[in-house]
Design goal:
single chain; 171 residues; alpha+beta; eight-stranded antiparallel beta sheet; 3 helices; 8 strands
Length: 171
């Protein structure tokens, strides 16, 4: 029985990256290209924003595979972005592993070197981790990041979110 348990644990530890699929890479590239064009294809129906005076939000029509939901945000100041949320879990380690798998898939799909800056803060005795991705190894400005990945705690569960930053619509 111990041997079966160890085999199960090793299999789970070396499980394949759920994001490592052609569909994920293809959809990611399509969404990133749309982000650079101002989210003309990804922007769906308008939704109520929690901060109406700061941003206009839309449901995302183009979804990353495995994402539970997504929205396109057009802030009053700054560039628009699409944010995707993935299935939450009560165990932080599982969400951390999923975040690492997502990071690896994004790096492969982007096909150019990416450099990350990660920060973790403690809010209400829970960690909030934010990772920004850049193409320049010396860059550290928040606004220059192409992508942002967050892991946060809310309502008894840990969540993973991923943003793809875009450019303003050329109109």
């Amino acid at each position: 029985m111990l041997i079966l348990f160890l085999l199960f644990v090793l299999t789970r530890a070396n499980a394949q990256n759920e994001f490592a699929a052609t569909a994920f890479y293809t959809d990611f590239k399509k969404i990133f290209a749309d982000a650079q064009a101002g989210f003309t294809d990804c922007k769906g129906i308008k939704r109520k924003s929690d901060f109406e005076e700061l941003a206009t939000e839309y449901y995302a029509k183009l979804m990353l595979p495995l994402a539970d939901s997504g929205k396109v945000v057009f802030p009053v100041a700054g560039n628009p972005y699409v944010i995707y949320y993935f299935e939450p879990d009560k165990i932080r380690l599982k969400v951390d592993q999923r975040g690492a798998n997502l990071r690896d898939a994004i790096a492969l799909a982007f096909e150019k070197p990416l450099y990350s800056r990660t920060s973790t803060t403690i809010t209400d005795n829970q960690p909030f981790t934010s990772t920004l991705y850049y193409t320049d190894p010396n860059e550290d400005k928040y606004s220059a990041a192409l992508f942002r990945q967050c892991i946060f705690y809310k309502g008894g569960k840990y969540y993973l979110s991923f943003e793809i930053r875009g450019k303003k619509d050329p109109e």
